[in-house]
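Aim 2 progress update. The chain analyzed this quarter is reproduced below.
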Amino acid sequence: MRRQFPQEQVAWLKDVFEGLSAEDQEFLRDAGTLHVLEEGDNVPAVQEGIVRVESGLVKLAVSAEDRTLAIALFGPNDTFCTPLYQTWENELYYLQVQEQSEVRVIPQSAVLQVAAKDPKFGAAVMRQMSHGNWQLLDTIHRLSFYNLPQRVAQVLVNLAAMFGMPDGKGGIKLGLRLTQEELAELAGARRETLSTVLQEFREDGILDLRYARIDIKDPAGLERLAGSEPLPFLNRERATAGA
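Predicted structure tokens:
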């Protein structure tokens, strides 16, 4: 999985560091440990802290035997706050780098010190934790009650909001190269059944498939299939601009 237009990346989550003084930002960065990781590397287990993506792309996932379920993707300036009060080991989840990335792990003590000094930062951390909880509940809801075409459509709707680039014809170029296996991980499916669904979408004129690329030809039709809009906290600026 790799971004196609990283230089044009628009943040899809509100930055937790937004509004912090330069002094406090520097304090948090100095308190953290910066990991420079290559594609396929796992971020070290988080011991009661937060994880900030300085650059690149990171996947949050759970796995068992030969199955993997990808829960969320984090890009530049996204901060994963859920482990703040827990010691999350890699047996419960893992954070895997999808392209060369710089990831900073900031300990709980530093986060709480700045939050006590700046309540707006504390509220921003709570907001990100709420987003993470909402997304986990949304994933459970989709897996429990949606059929596979709906789940695939919803994943693509979310990805379009995060990585979409208008194609000038009313469609959206998905600025993310991913295999069918990786898309299956996001939809909670097996690759073989996903392939059938994608072919049906293609025959219905919803999307166009190329090697590791998906172009969405009918965004409105895709949202109708999904039955809902993108995750409510995603920035839709890129996907809708100029459409």
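The radius of gyration is 18 Å. The CA atoms of residues 206 and 220 lie 9 Å apart. These observations will guide the mutagenesis experiments scheduled for the next reporting period.
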